[in-house]
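2024-03-11 09:14:02 INFO queue: dequeued item Histidinol-phosphate aminotransferase, len=348
2024-03-11 09:14:02 INFO validating residues
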Amino acid sequence: MFDLQNILRPNIKNLVPYSSARDEFKGEASVYLDANENAFGSPLEQQYNRYPDPLQYQVKKRLSEIKGVPPRNIFLGNGSDEAIDILFRSFCNPGVDNVILVPPTYGMYEVSANINDIQTRKVTLTPEYQLNLEGIAEAIDKNTKLIFICSPNNPTGNSINREDIETLLANFNGLVVVDEAYINFSRQKSFIQELTEYANLVVLQTLSKAWGLAGLRVGMAFASEEIIEVMNKVKPPYNINEASQQLALQALQNIDLVNVWIKELLAERDKLVLQLKHLPFVLDIYPSDANFILVKTTDAKGIYNFLVEHGIIVRDRSKVDLCEGSLRITIGTPEENQKLLETLQLYK
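2024-03-11 09:14:37 INFO prediction written
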């Protein structure tokens, strides 16, 4: 039976979080002399002399309307990477605990684990890029605190079988972290709707991909109120700056435009796949639910270097497990995709 208190680090249980000036006062006032800010303003057209809302309530309120999740179930981080790091720092004891990774997958899980001195146990996906449930079950022990599942997966692009993730959620007494950075491009529904069903579920999403806000660094975690309270306790007090909050709020009013972009991108993805299949050095293109495709080739390194010489940058994933000979290609604008195809046709 999952119990959050059983996996929470003892020092985090007893942690008294930093109390900022904006934590101690809620509401509006005419004179703010509590936070040692520069009362004269900012040397900018927009005023940034005041500290931002530490809990980003207005952004969470708008996200709540879009996602159908109460604000209290939302954590905002400086990119999803901050949420990943906070999960390690909250639930994993350095040098003692371990986490399960399922390569090929997003590389930041392992980097963050290494930074926090947490052992990683890798259970490679099947040749079909699905979970090896038996292997995961064998890798779990009493010190396994987190399992990271990226779906749609990076770099393979496919969605992970929903039933397999539900099996982990129902049987694992730690946290199952489902990273849905690319969910906007997928036919698979988000696991956000399952938060009330599984107390050990954490869903990661981002404004960097479909929303086109990679430069703002705003990531999201959705989980039980109890888990979100822990993450808010561990995070820095002002982890999302005022400019990012205001710009994110503006962007979140334009959901119709984003949906149009998603449809156009998916159409471009399908068109690019069809055209790439005609190239003699393309061996396979794996099914994708993301804004990129994984392309198996006869010479990934040579093709990569050839594209670099022509000013086109893709990602060489040929050294990643199960991705031998493969390039990961992000779907660009119609003009960018056409330039890519025309350049590849010159490759000998």
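2024-03-11 09:14:37 INFO annotate: The longest helix spans residues 255-276.
2024-03-11 09:14:38 INFO item closed
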